[in-house]
Each structure stands twice: as structure tokens, then as C-alpha cells.
UniProtKB/TrEMBL annotation:
<feature type="transmembrane region" description="Helical">
    <location>
        <begin position="403"/>
        <end position="422"/>
    </location>
</feature>
<feature type="transmembrane region" description="Helical">
    <location>
        <begin position="131"/>
        <end position="154"/>
    </location>
</feature>
<feature type="transmembrane region" description="Helical">
    <location>
        <begin position="166"/>
        <end position="187"/>
    </location>
</feature>
<dbReference type="GO" id="GO:0022857">
    <property type="term" value="F:transmembrane transporter activity"/>
</dbReference>
<feature type="transmembrane region" description="Helical">
    <location>
        <begin position="193"/>
        <end position="210"/>
    </location>
</feature>
<dbReference type="Pfam" id="PF07690">
    <property type="entry name" value="MFS_1"/>
</dbReference>
<feature type="transmembrane region" description="Helical">
    <location>
        <begin position="428"/>
        <end position="447"/>
    </location>
</feature>
<feature type="transmembrane region" description="Helical">
    <location>
        <begin position="43"/>
        <end position="70"/>
    </location>
</feature>
<keyword id="KW-0812">Transmembrane</keyword>
<feature type="domain" description="Major facilitator superfamily (MFS) profile">
    <location>
        <begin position="274"/>
        <end position="473"/>
    </location>
</feature>
<feature type="transmembrane region" description="Helical">
    <location>
        <begin position="308"/>
        <end position="329"/>
    </location>
</feature>
<keyword id="KW-1133">Transmembrane helix</keyword>
<dbReference type="InterPro" id="IPR036259">
    <property type="entry name" value="MFS_trans_sf"/>
</dbReference>
<protein>
    <submittedName>
        <fullName>MFS transporter</fullName>
    </submittedName>
</protein>
<feature type="transmembrane region" description="Helical">
    <location>
        <begin position="107"/>
        <end position="125"/>
    </location>
</feature>
<dbReference type="InterPro" id="IPR011701">
    <property type="entry name" value="MFS"/>
</dbReference>
<feature type="transmembrane region" description="Helical">
    <location>
        <begin position="275"/>
        <end position="296"/>
    </location>
</feature>
Length: 473
């Protein structure tokens, strides 16, 4: 029987049916996207999110403000925060201990316990030596948890799952940092309560870790060789595929790859190479910005008239946006080259610190200009992080694992030294010295980073000494 309906009506029904079919396709695609994390995310990732909230969100804001408010000694901030950064350098110790004694779970839980007890004791045990010691323990506890977190994935999950699992792990940590920064704005008027709540927040982290850690970590598997696997099999490319929020001291702790000093024995081999020049550039920049990141909540309040609550809120929002920019940084590095993107990131940071310094000499509103500079400084980090990681792999004359160890070590040592130097600078010169030394370090890094992008700067594929010698012959 022929359809006697109006042709316009028939066409309208077909259009509606087509739209409904398209809507169902979009809904199915959305469901697939929402289900994707279930493949890679484990319950214990929530524990890592809480670690990010405390160590990367609350502590960088609360500790400097508390020290200045209770003691009025500006230089004490550098020594206490330097103790925390120094504690983060214990990462190789935990990696080697897990390698030799196979104590993954005990190290993970003890790290949380040490951090918890250090934070709970800080408000009740004032004093420069006590605070520095407790801060050192807090950094060591943070380092222990972070190192074991990456090993739980690298050692107890299939290699083809490393990239997405580590990516989601770091996403949880970055989300925790953003949440911690927002919470810091609430506790800036009550440091003691803030530190106690930070310690209490780690209790559910321990419980969450106990619920979801890999079963293989409970017993030693004689086929597992932790250090060798990480240095031999860890592919540099996945490092650039997920975000690392800028942590205390300008990005000291690399959650994707535990700090390794094994590459130090190669130091003499690369002094006169482009890789050596890049490491010097990275060291100079990390050294320059370290003091500012130790003092920034105090400096923003005292020198730029920005309330701590506003500083932490702006930092949180900027860090949230910056998490999205890591993928952009990877795309830019692929299109224009990591060398150019690296120098662009340094130019952004240079502009940000220049704004912070100029307000001391110009009759302008300090708060607005300082916030604009601060946002530029934080926003530039994804570009610097991604391009720096890529340059490490592309310029290294030896294995990428050893190169990554040197890369992490150079930034870590520079941060510790720069943080401790910040105390005398602020004490004798003032807050303007923080942005001034940052400008010097960034400018030096920008100049020495010139010419790193060359056509033959391809990823290294040489992993043994004989191959290196043949390639250099």
C-alpha cells in the first residue's frame, strides 16, 4: 500500500530518525569514554590523590605562612622547605631498597605513616631544627610513597599497560594537588588545624592503599629485577603523554620515573655534548626558580599584597588548566620541535618573573600585575616539562634510562641548593631577590639552550658501551 503522507512529513521523520541515530552513536561513544578509566584505574590511586593534595597542595602554602607567622624569621622558610626538598632526594634509596629487599608494601605504608606523624607533630614542636628535621622526614615519606607508586605499576602490571596506568595515576595526583590548593585557602588563617587535617587525610589514604595494591607486591617474585627493568624497559615517550603538576621547588619530584643517580657515572661522557649543555640549562632554570617556589605564598602576601587564600585559589585554577596543556605541549613539540618549545616556555617564565620584579620599580597596582606574572609562571610549566623530557631522550648519547636519571638529578640538586640559598637572599636583600635570581637563572638557561634543536637530534637507541663507541668512531 502506497504511503499517502505528505512528502515533507516523511522527510521530517527521516531527519528525526537520523538525528536520533546520531545521538545514540554519540551516547555510545560517551559511555565508552566513561568506561575507559575502569580498565586502568585502581582503588589505591585515590591514596595517591590524597598524597598529591597534602604534599603538593596544602604543604607548599601552609608551611611557609606558618613559619613566618610564628617566628618572623624569613630565612627559616628556606631552611624548612629545603629540608623537605632534601627529603625528596631519598628516592634512589627507596628504589634500591625495594630492589634488594623487595619491601614494596612496607615502604609504601611507612612513607604515609612518616608523613602523617611529621605533619601532626609540626604545630606542637616549634623551632628551626625541629621543623627542618620534621620537614626532612615529610619529604622522605612523600618520596617513598611516590617511588613505590610508580614501581607498583612498572613491576606488577603488563608493559603494554604502563602508559595508561601511569597517566591516570598522575592525573589523580594532579587532581589531588588542585583540591589541596583550594583547601589551603580555607586553612591559611589556622595553620595548626590545617596541618592536623592534612595528617588526618592520610589515614584514609593508608586504608585505600591496603584495599587496592597489586597482589603481586605481597610476595617476592625472583623474576623481578626492579632497577634493571625500569632503566632498561622504561620508554621515554610515555613520559610526555601525561601531566606532572609543578611541585614544591619547581617540579622536583618526578612521579613517572623514580630519581636515579646511576647515570652520574656517565657525567664525564656528555660534558661537551648538546645533552650536557641542555642539562646545564635545566639546572640553571631549576636553581633560579627554586627560591621563589619556597617563598611564593609569603612573598605574594608581603610583597605584592595578595591574600594567601587568593594565591592558593589562583594557583589551583591555573594548575587545573595546566593539566590540560600537557597534551598541547606534546603536540607543539612534535610540530615545531622540542628545542623551540623549551625556549618558548622559558620566555613565558621570564616574562612572568619580569612582571614580578617590575612592580618594585613602577607605580602600578602590585596585586594584579603579580597575579598575572604568577599565572604565566605556572602556565609555562607544561611546555617546559614536556619539551625537557623529549630533549632528554633525543639528545642523550647513551641509554635513555641513565639520561632520565641525570635529568631528574640535575633538577633535584639545583632545587635543593636554590631553596637553601633563598633564605639569605630574602633576609638581606628582600623579596625582589626571588624574582631577580629567577630571571638570571632562566636567562642563562635560555642562552645555553640555544641550538639544541638540530636535524640529527633523534631519540637515542644505543644502550651498551660498545655500541656507543662504534657510533662515536
Amino acid at each position: 500500500m502506497a504511503d499517502t503522507r505528505n512528502p515533507g512529513t516523511i522527510m521530517g521523520e527521516k531527519a528525526i530518525a537520523a538525528r536520533m541515530h546520531l545521538a545514540r552513536e554519540h551516547l555510545d561513544r560517551l559511555r565508552a569514554i566513561l568506561k575507559e578509566p575502569d580498565r586502568w584505574v585502581s582503588v589505591w590511586f585515590l591514596a595517591y590523590a590524597l598524597l598529591g593534595a597534602v604534599s603538593s597542595g596544602l604543604l607548599p602554602i601552609l608551611l611557609p605562612l606558618m613559619i613566618v607567622a610564628l617566628t618572623h624569621h624569613l630565612s627559616w622558610v628556606a631552611y624548612v622547605m629545603g629540608g623537605f626538598n632534601l627529603g625528596l632526594l631519598t628516592s634512589p634509596l627507596w628504589g634500591n631498597l625495594a630492589d634488594s629487599k623487595h619491601l614494596h608494601r612496607p615502604i609504601f605504608f611507612c612513607g604515609f605513616l612518616v608523613l602523617l606523624m611529621a605533619l601532626a607533630a609540626m604545630p606542637f614542636l616549634p623551632g628551626i631544627l625541629t621543623w627542618s628535621g620534621l620537614s626532612l622526614l615529610a619529604g622522605a615519606g612523600t618520596s617513598a610513597v611516590a617511588t613505590m607508586a610508580s614501581l607498583f605499576i612498572v613491576e606488577f602490571d603488563p608493559q603494554n599497560e604502563w602508559e595508561p596506568r601511569l597517566g591516570w595515576l598522575q592525573t589523580f595526583n594532579g587532581g589531588g594537588q588542585v583540591g589541596g590548593l583550594f583547601l589551603a585557602g580555607i586553612f591559611v588563617s589556622n595553620f595548626k588545624l590545617g596541618l592536623i587535617c592534612s595528617a588526618l587525610a592520610l589515614i584514609p589514604a593508608i586504608w585505600l592503599g591496603a584495599k587496592g595494591l597489586p597482589a603481586g607486591a605481597k610476595s617476592y617474585d625472583w623474576t623481578v629485577e626492579i632497577g634493571n627493568h625500569m632503566r632498561r624497559d622504561l620508554d621515554w615517550r610515555f613520559l610526555a603523554n601525561f601531566g606532572r603538576p609543578e611541585l614544591l621547588g619547581g617540579g622536583l619530584l618526578r612521579f613517572s620515573h623514580h630519581l636515579s643517580l646511576q647515570g652520574a657515572r656517565r657525567f664525564g661522557d656528555m660534558l661537551h655534548t648538546r645533552f650536557g649543555r641542555f642539562l646545564f640549562s635545566w639546572f640553571a632554570v631549576a636553581f633560579g626558580v627554586a627560591a621563589f617556589f619556597a617563598y611564593f605564598p609569603v612573598a605574594m602576601q608581603k610583597a605584592y599584597n595578595v591574600a594567601p587564600a587568593l594565591t592558593s585559589s589562583v594557583y589551583a585554577m591555573t594548575a587545573a588548566i595546566a593539566l590540560v596543556l600537557y597534551s598541547v605541549g606534546g603536540q607543539l613539540s612534535g610540530r615545531f620541535g622540542a628545542g623551540r618549545v623549551y625556549r618558548w616556555s622559558l620566555m613565558l617564565r621570564f616574562l612572568g618573573f619580569a612582571l614580578l620584579l617590575l612592580v618594585f620599580f613602577l607605580p602600578v597596582s602590585r596585586a594584579l600585575i603579580a597575579l598575572a606574572g604568577f599565572v604565566l609562571i605556572v602556565i609555562a610549566w607544561p611546555l617546559q616539562s614536556i619539551s625537557g623530557t623529549s630533549l632528554t631522550a633525543r639528545l642523550t648519547p647513551f641509554s635513555q634510562g641513565e639520561a632520565m636519571g641525570l635529568f631528574n638529578a640535575s633538577g633535584a640538586v639545583a632545587t635543593v641548593v636554590g631553596t637553601f640559598l633563598g633564605g639569605p637572599l630574602v633576609q638581606f636583600i628582600g623579596y625582589s631577590s626571588l624574582s631577580a635570581i629567577a630571571l638570571v637563572g632562566i636567562l642563562l638557561g635560555w642562552l645555553t639552550g640555544h641550538g639544541l634543536q638540530t636535524p640529527d637530534a633523534a631519540p637515542a637507541a644505543i644502550h651498551d658501551d660498545s655500541a656507543v663507541q662504534k657510533a662515536q668512531a
